[in-house]
Amino acid sequence: MEAEHELLHQRVAVVTGGAGGIGLEICRLLATAGMRVVLTARGQEQAERAVAQIEAASDQLLIPAALEVTDSASLRSFMDWLDRTLGRVDVLINNAGIAPQGHRFMEMTDAELDLAMQTHLYAPLRLIRAVLPQMQAQGYGRIVNVSSSLGQLAQMGARWPAYRLSKAALNALTAVVAADVAGSNVLVNAVCPGWCRTPLGGPDAPREAVEGAADIVWLATLPDDGPNGGFFRDRLKQAW
Protein backbone atom coordinates (compact mmCIF):
# COMPACT_ATOMS: atom_id res chain seq x y z
CA MET A 1 0.00 0.00 0.00
CA GLU A 2 2.86 2.40 0.83
CA ALA A 3 4.53 1.65 -2.50
CA GLU A 4 1.25 2.31 -4.33
CA HIS A 5 0.82 5.67 -2.58
CA GLU A 6 4.43 6.61 -3.42
CA LEU A 7 3.75 5.75 -7.06
CA LEU A 8 0.73 8.07 -7.08
CA HIS A 9 2.98 10.89 -5.87
CA GLN A 10 4.99 10.46 -9.07
CA ARG A 11 1.93 10.71 -11.32
CA VAL A 12 1.05 13.97 -13.06
CA ALA A 13 -2.63 14.60 -13.82
CA VAL A 14 -3.89 17.34 -16.15
CA VAL A 15 -7.51 18.40 -15.70
CA THR A 16 -9.20 20.76 -18.15
CA GLY A 17 -12.01 22.98 -16.91
CA GLY A 18 -10.76 22.62 -13.36
CA ALA A 19 -11.81 25.97 -11.94
CA GLY A 20 -15.30 25.03 -10.78
CA GLY A 21 -18.04 22.44 -10.48
CA ILE A 22 -17.08 18.85 -11.26
CA GLY A 23 -13.62 19.88 -12.47
CA LEU A 24 -12.73 21.45 -9.13
CA GLU A 25 -13.84 18.30 -7.30
CA ILE A 26 -11.81 16.11 -9.68
CA CYS A 27 -8.71 18.15 -8.89
CA ARG A 28 -9.34 17.99 -5.16
CA LEU A 29 -9.87 14.21 -5.16
CA LEU A 30 -6.82 13.50 -7.32
CA ALA A 31 -4.64 15.70 -5.11
CA THR A 32 -5.99 13.94 -2.03
CA ALA A 33 -5.04 10.62 -3.64
CA GLY A 34 -1.48 11.90 -3.90
CA MET A 35 -1.12 12.96 -7.53
CA ARG A 36 0.53 16.13 -8.75
CA VAL A 37 -2.48 17.88 -10.24
CA VAL A 38 -2.31 20.55 -12.92
CA LEU A 39 -5.56 22.49 -12.60
CA THR A 40 -6.24 24.34 -15.84
CA ALA A 41 -8.65 27.16 -16.52
CA ARG A 42 -9.12 29.70 -19.29
CA GLY A 43 -6.94 32.24 -17.50
CA GLN A 44 -4.04 32.03 -15.05
CA GLU A 45 -5.79 34.11 -12.39
CA GLN A 46 -8.89 31.92 -12.58
CA ALA A 47 -6.73 28.80 -12.16
CA GLU A 48 -4.86 30.35 -9.23
CA ARG A 49 -8.11 31.25 -7.45
CA ALA A 50 -9.37 27.68 -7.83
CA VAL A 51 -6.12 26.25 -6.49
CA ALA A 52 -6.25 28.63 -3.54
CA GLN A 53 -9.81 27.51 -2.82
CA ILE A 54 -8.72 23.86 -2.58
CA GLU A 55 -5.55 24.59 -0.63
CA ALA A 56 -7.44 26.74 1.89
CA ALA A 57 -9.53 23.72 2.90
CA SER A 58 -6.74 21.12 2.92
CA ASP A 59 -2.99 20.61 2.84
CA GLN A 60 -3.04 19.55 -0.81
CA LEU A 61 -0.78 21.35 -3.28
CA LEU A 62 -1.87 21.86 -6.87
CA ILE A 63 -0.37 23.59 -9.89
CA PRO A 64 -2.46 26.27 -11.66
CA ALA A 65 -2.12 26.76 -15.41
CA ALA A 66 -3.88 28.69 -18.15
CA LEU A 67 -5.37 26.64 -20.98
CA GLU A 68 -8.09 27.79 -23.35
CA VAL A 69 -8.89 24.41 -24.86
CA THR A 70 -10.38 25.78 -28.09
CA ASP A 71 -7.31 27.92 -28.87
CA SER A 72 -4.46 26.08 -30.61
CA ALA A 73 -1.89 28.72 -29.57
CA SER A 74 -2.93 28.34 -25.93
CA LEU A 75 -2.58 24.57 -26.22
CA ARG A 76 0.92 24.83 -27.70
CA SER A 77 1.97 27.26 -24.97
CA PHE A 78 0.55 25.00 -22.28
CA MET A 79 2.27 21.87 -23.62
CA ASP A 80 5.61 23.72 -23.87
CA TRP A 81 5.23 24.88 -20.27
CA LEU A 82 4.26 21.38 -19.12
CA ASP A 83 7.27 19.82 -20.83
CA ARG A 84 9.63 22.36 -19.25
CA THR A 85 8.23 22.18 -15.73
CA LEU A 86 6.98 18.63 -15.13
CA GLY A 87 8.19 16.73 -18.16
CA ARG A 88 5.41 14.17 -18.20
CA VAL A 89 1.67 13.49 -18.18
CA ASP A 90 0.24 10.30 -16.70
CA VAL A 91 -3.43 11.23 -16.52
CA LEU A 92 -5.46 13.45 -18.83
CA ILE A 93 -9.03 14.32 -17.93
CA ASN A 94 -10.91 16.14 -20.68
CA ASN A 95 -13.52 17.81 -18.52
CA ALA A 96 -13.92 21.29 -20.05
CA GLY A 97 -17.39 21.74 -21.47
CA ILE A 98 -20.17 24.13 -22.34
CA ALA A 99 -23.80 24.02 -21.30
CA PRO A 100 -26.36 22.54 -23.71
CA GLN A 101 -28.88 24.77 -25.48
CA GLY A 102 -32.38 23.41 -25.04
CA HIS A 103 -33.88 24.09 -28.44
CA ARG A 104 -34.51 21.74 -31.37
CA PHE A 105 -32.47 20.78 -34.43
CA MET A 106 -33.76 23.42 -36.87
CA GLU A 107 -33.12 26.16 -34.29
CA MET A 108 -29.44 25.23 -33.93
CA THR A 109 -27.02 27.76 -35.42
CA ASP A 110 -23.76 26.97 -37.18
CA ALA A 111 -21.89 28.98 -34.56
CA GLU A 112 -23.46 27.01 -31.74
CA LEU A 113 -22.57 23.68 -33.34
CA ASP A 114 -19.03 24.84 -34.10
CA LEU A 115 -18.41 25.90 -30.49
CA ALA A 116 -19.78 22.60 -29.17
CA MET A 117 -17.60 20.57 -31.53
CA GLN A 118 -14.51 22.69 -30.82
CA THR A 119 -15.01 22.26 -27.08
CA HIS A 120 -16.17 18.65 -26.81
CA LEU A 121 -14.42 17.00 -29.77
CA TYR A 122 -11.50 18.95 -31.22
CA ALA A 123 -10.05 20.11 -27.91
CA PRO A 124 -9.92 16.59 -26.40
CA LEU A 125 -8.62 15.23 -29.70
CA ARG A 126 -5.74 17.73 -29.80
CA LEU A 127 -4.85 17.19 -26.16
CA ILE A 128 -4.85 13.42 -26.60
CA ARG A 129 -2.60 13.71 -29.64
CA ALA A 130 -0.26 15.93 -27.62
CA VAL A 131 0.14 13.57 -24.63
CA LEU A 132 -0.31 10.14 -26.20
CA PRO A 133 3.23 9.59 -27.58
CA GLN A 134 4.78 10.17 -24.16
CA MET A 135 2.19 7.95 -22.42
CA GLN A 136 2.93 5.14 -24.86
CA ALA A 137 6.68 5.59 -24.47
CA GLN A 138 6.48 5.33 -20.68
CA GLY A 139 4.03 2.40 -20.82
CA TYR A 140 1.39 4.10 -18.68
CA GLY A 141 -1.49 6.48 -19.25
CA ARG A 142 -5.08 7.11 -18.24
CA ILE A 143 -7.34 9.26 -20.42
CA VAL A 144 -10.85 10.10 -19.26
CA ASN A 145 -13.27 11.93 -21.53
CA VAL A 146 -16.15 13.48 -19.58
CA SER A 147 -19.18 12.81 -21.74
CA SER A 148 -22.94 12.62 -21.17
CA SER A 149 -25.89 10.30 -21.59
CA LEU A 150 -27.18 12.96 -24.00
CA GLY A 151 -24.52 11.70 -26.41
CA GLN A 152 -25.64 8.08 -26.29
CA LEU A 153 -26.92 6.76 -29.61
CA ALA A 154 -28.76 4.12 -27.59
CA GLN A 155 -31.10 6.78 -26.22
CA MET A 156 -30.74 9.72 -28.58
CA GLY A 157 -33.39 12.43 -28.36
CA ALA A 158 -34.48 15.62 -30.06
CA ARG A 159 -33.47 18.54 -27.88
CA TRP A 160 -29.98 19.97 -27.17
CA PRO A 161 -28.78 19.03 -30.70
CA ALA A 162 -25.31 20.65 -30.68
CA TYR A 163 -24.52 19.21 -27.27
CA ARG A 164 -25.76 15.74 -28.25
CA LEU A 165 -23.84 15.70 -31.54
CA SER A 166 -20.59 16.85 -29.94
CA LYS A 167 -20.78 14.41 -27.04
CA ALA A 168 -21.60 11.54 -29.43
CA ALA A 169 -18.48 12.53 -31.37
CA LEU A 170 -16.47 12.52 -28.13
CA ASN A 171 -17.71 9.00 -27.43
CA ALA A 172 -16.58 7.93 -30.90
CA LEU A 173 -13.18 9.51 -30.31
CA THR A 174 -12.89 7.54 -27.08
CA ALA A 175 -13.58 4.24 -28.84
CA VAL A 176 -11.20 4.99 -31.72
CA VAL A 177 -8.26 5.98 -29.50
CA ALA A 178 -8.85 3.09 -27.08
CA ALA A 179 -8.73 0.59 -29.94
CA ASP A 180 -5.60 2.20 -31.33
CA VAL A 181 -3.66 1.99 -28.03
CA ALA A 182 -4.93 -1.40 -26.87
CA GLY A 183 -2.23 -3.39 -25.13
CA SER A 184 -0.02 -0.39 -24.32
CA ASN A 185 -1.28 0.18 -20.75
CA VAL A 186 -2.87 3.43 -21.87
CA LEU A 187 -6.52 3.11 -20.84
CA VAL A 188 -9.01 5.41 -22.55
CA ASN A 189 -12.60 5.66 -21.34
CA ALA A 190 -15.60 7.99 -21.37
CA VAL A 191 -17.87 8.70 -18.43
CA CYS A 192 -21.23 10.30 -17.75
CA PRO A 193 -21.02 12.00 -14.35
CA GLY A 194 -24.78 12.49 -14.21
CA TRP A 195 -26.74 15.68 -13.72
CA CYS A 196 -24.86 17.52 -10.98
CA ARG A 197 -25.42 20.77 -9.10
CA THR A 198 -22.79 22.97 -10.75
CA PRO A 199 -22.79 26.32 -12.58
CA LEU A 200 -23.53 24.32 -15.76
CA GLY A 201 -25.97 21.85 -14.23
CA GLY A 202 -27.93 24.40 -12.19
CA PRO A 203 -29.37 24.24 -8.67
CA ASP A 204 -32.09 21.68 -9.42
CA ALA A 205 -29.76 18.81 -10.36
CA PRO A 206 -30.11 15.71 -8.14
CA ARG A 207 -26.40 14.98 -7.62
CA GLU A 208 -23.56 16.76 -5.85
CA ALA A 209 -20.54 17.62 -7.98
CA VAL A 210 -18.32 15.36 -5.88
CA GLU A 211 -20.52 12.37 -6.80
CA GLY A 212 -19.90 12.92 -10.49
CA ALA A 213 -16.21 13.56 -9.88
CA ALA A 214 -15.77 10.29 -7.98
CA ASP A 215 -16.54 8.15 -11.05
CA ILE A 216 -14.10 10.19 -13.13
CA VAL A 217 -11.34 9.76 -10.56
CA TRP A 218 -12.05 6.02 -10.48
CA LEU A 219 -11.29 5.82 -14.20
CA ALA A 220 -8.26 8.09 -13.80
CA THR A 221 -6.71 5.71 -11.25
CA LEU A 222 -7.54 2.35 -12.85
CA PRO A 223 -5.14 -0.54 -12.29
CA ASP A 224 -3.29 -1.95 -15.27
CA ASP A 225 -5.97 -4.60 -15.82
CA GLY A 226 -8.78 -2.00 -15.81
CA PRO A 227 -11.25 -1.47 -18.65
CA ASN A 228 -10.32 0.24 -21.90
CA GLY A 229 -12.68 1.72 -24.47
CA GLY A 230 -15.82 1.84 -22.37
CA PHE A 231 -18.53 4.35 -21.51
CA PHE A 232 -19.40 4.36 -17.81
CA ARG A 233 -21.89 5.77 -15.35
CA ASP A 234 -21.85 4.92 -11.65
CA ARG A 235 -18.95 2.58 -12.52
CA LEU A 236 -21.24 0.49 -14.73
CA LYS A 237 -20.56 0.11 -18.43
CA GLN A 238 -23.19 1.79 -20.62
CA ALA A 239 -24.30 1.27 -24.20
CA TRP A 240 -22.82 3.74 -26.66
Can you give a write-up of this model?
The chain is an alpha/beta fold and 240 residues long. The protein is 46% helix and 15% strand. It contains seven helices and eight strands; from the N terminus they run αβαβαβαβαβαβαββ. The protein has helices at residues 2-10, 21-33, 44-57, 72-85, 110-138, 161-180, 209-220; strands at 12-15, 36-41, 62-66, 91-94, 141-146, 186-191, 231-233, 236-237. The model is unreliable at 1-6 (pLDDT under 50).
What features would you highlight for this structure?
240 residues; alpha/beta; 7 helices; 8 strands; disordered N terminus
Question: How many beta-strand segments?
Answer: 8
Q: List the secondary-structure elements in sequence, H or E.
A: HEHEHEHEHEHEHEE
Q: What topology, given as strand order, has the largest sheet?
A: 3-2-1-4-5-6-7-8
Assign an overall shape.
globular
Percent of residues in β-strands: 15-25%
Number of helices: 7
Share of residues in helices = 40-55%
Could you tell me the radius of gyration in angstroms? 17 Å
- Helix- and strand-based class? alpha/beta
Residue-averaged pLDDT? 92
Topology:
Layout: H1 2-10, E1 12-15, H2 21-33, E2 36-41, H3 44-57, E3 62-66, H4 72-85, E4 91-94, H5 110-138, E5 141-146, H6 161-180, E6 186-191, H7 209-220, E7 231-233, E8 236-237
Parallel strand pairs: 1-2, 1-4, 2-3, 4-5, 5-6, 6-7
Antiparallel strand pairs: 7-8
What's the short version?
This protein is an alpha/beta fold and 240 residues long. It contains seven helices and eight strands, in the order αβαβαβαβαβαβαββ.
